[in-house]
Amino acid sequence: MIPVVNSISERTIQGELRSALERVTGERPLPQGSGRTDAGVHALGQVASFELAAPIPAENLLRALNRTLPDAIRVLEARTVRSNFHARHSAVAKTYEYRIFPEAICPPMLARYVYACAWPLDVEKLEAAARFFMGEHNFLSFVATDPDLAARYAASRAELDPKTQVTATPIRTVYSSQWERRQMEAGELLAYRVRGNGFLHHMVRNLVGTMVDVGRGYRTVEDVPGILAARSRTAAGPTAPAKGLFLHSVEYGEE
Known about the structure:
Blueprint lengths: L12 H13 L6 E2 L8 E2 L4 E2 L8 H11 L22 E11 L13 E2 L6 H9 L3 E4 L8 H9 L3 E2 L6 E2 L2 E14 L2 E10 L6 H13 L8 H7 L14 E8 L3
Helix pairs in contact: 1-2, 3-5
């Protein structure tokens, strides 16, 4: 992912990619990711954009970067795009996936990439709860607790953030929201896949935390519309652990 660089000594994927670009090209652009994520969140399809003066063919840059980057980071594709393309602001949709391992014993090799949930979960209730999130909604109940940001969201759905030039609103459209079961050698995996035009800070993790409450019987499926309507973080469930979340893919229009 492309997290914020908080200090010179902190290693980030953004920083590692920037260093690799400098070693390969002699230039030091700052890659801009399609979004910022929390520590512990994973990416299968992150996108980053940057500007280079060096006339290196995309396929050559791809090979050179993968020879230079640490083993934990790989560039899957490189391409030349229009000059006004931005990995974040040009995105039209994103898909996230959250993985839960509901078995009694979670294999050590899997533990870093799933939420090992100790409670028995009713999958039919999870699926029913997930359907309520489809469509355009105010997701203020599912945004990370931030009094200042919440006040701005509550004030207007048309306010423009001066830093990002993105409308500061908790209104988002979710195109699909569903759970699926996957059989693995170690047992069954539950995966929540959600696709939308954008996501708020901690939104997917808070959706999952709330659905887990429904799946274990702590809340009912019928509670979900009321949680959405409340527009208050205190109405929803806990934030699910970061390690189960994956940025699956980012979609763009014409590039």
